[in-house]
Amino acid sequence: MALNVNLLSTSARLSYNPRVSEPVSRPINATTRYCAVYGHPIKHSASPAMQNAGITALGLDWRYLAFDVRPNELRTAIAGAKAMGFIGLNLTVPHKLLALEIVDQVDEAAERFGAVNTIRFEAKDEQGTWRPLREFDEVRNEIRSVGFNTDADAITRALREEVGVNVAGAKILLLGAGGAGRTAALKLAADGAGELFLMNRTLSKAEELAAEIRERSPGTKVTVGYPTVSVDLVLNATSLGLEKSDALPLDERQFLLRKSGAVFDMIYRPADTSLLRAARADGCRTANGLGMLLYQGAAALEIWTGLKAPVEVMRRALEQNIYE
Ligand code: ATR
Q1: Which residues pair with 224 in a beta bridge?
Q2: Is 5 left (phi over 0), alpha (psi -120 to 50) or beta?
Q3: Which of 28, 55, 286, 291 stands the most exposed, by the fewest C-beta atoms within 10 Å?
Q4: 3-state class (DSSP) for residue 13
Q5: Terminal CA-to-CA distance of the chain, rounded, Å?
């Protein structure tokens, strides 16, 4: 008996919401639909907090879950979500490249950037047209998975909205030529950046990336090395700054931050890096990578729902999850 009383009081506490104006998520029942994120590891992901806040604000009877999926189980896990009528998935490290070979279709951005971070499941309607699974209440016989990439668009959106940099025609110093740096460089060039200066600890990787950009986006001038001119933006895509003891990701003897209008750090945890502090002290406009996380998530939610994502609700949920 005592156990039952405890359960009752727990559920009463959970459903009590002192801020009446805040939407409360609907209880899970047998018609609730699911999205999920797969990663390895996954336990630090802020996506469930962000996406469930968005789903709740849209009034949907959906939930967004997180699963630790090992790379050798990715194919099975995607097939499982498909079989169980999931609306869609997000994929994070280390699955984004692998998924390209697993999904049934890829959209143009996923193809171009060689990575899938969002999957939408689709079924055929009575006319034989593929439609998002959210439009069907009943189990469907044939379901396909379509891979999207919302990371790349999130980069240019975050630069525009968080530090006021329009990529077209801009001069940009990009630090880092790893996975994140490569996607950023290809996207900046595809969006018409005027000149890209690439720097990386392993210079040969910057050289390789420069060659790839010259071939794919001949309109963008690419130089490996620090600029001698002023630039519109310094973008950090290295992992330097994740640890408090990390050195700055650029050599200030070779490039002074005050020669840049803005500095964007793709790192969001911690919120403030030594690069951002130094940039603020030098009068640059600055932002951390939270906006990129937000906009890739907002675009994924729009792909699944067909509705405009409640971006500010999602931003608040992310900030609470990561910083509070
Ligand atoms: P991600 O997917 O986050 O981009 P990554 O592909 O491992 O991860 O890339 C990490 C980036 O941070 C690379 O540009 C890496 O430089 P190298 O290509 O020379 O490895 C950079 N980086 C990591 N640790 C660094 C350090 N101690 N000093 C300078 N750059 C570093």
Answers
A1: 198
A2: alpha
A3: 28
A4: helix
A5: 37
Tens of pLDDT, residue by residue over 1-54, are 333 333 333 333 334 344 445 677 889 999 999 999 999 999 999 999 999 999
178 lines ligand 1 (CB under 6 A): yes
Task: Report the distance separating Cα 152 and Cα 145, nearest Å.
Answer: 20
For the Cβ of 239 lying below 6 angstroms from any atom of ligand 1, the answer is yes
One-letter amino acid of 55: I
Q: Quote the longest CA-to-CA distance of the chain.
A: 76
pTM: 0.91
Which protein residue has the closest C-alpha to ligand 1 atom 11? 238
The two tokens of residue 306 are 């067909």
Token pair for 104:
């049934």
Task: Please state the atom number of ligand 1 nearest to the C-alpha of residue 205.
Answer: 18
Q: How many residues comprise the chain? A: 324
Best residue among 91, 239, 245 to mutate for probing ligand 1, ranked by most atoms within 8 Å of CB: 239
CB distance 324 to 49 below 8 Å: no
Active site residues: 96
The C-alpha atoms of residue 96 and residue 312 are separated, in whole angstroms, by 26
Prior bond of 270 cis (ω within 30°): yes
**Of 120, 148, 118, the residue nearest 132 (C-alpha):** 120
Residue 26 is predicted with a pLDDT of 82
Cβ neighbors of 118 (< 8 A, separation 6 or more) are 88, 89, 90, 91, 147, 148, 149, 150, 296, 299, 300, 303
173 bridge partner residues: 197, 234
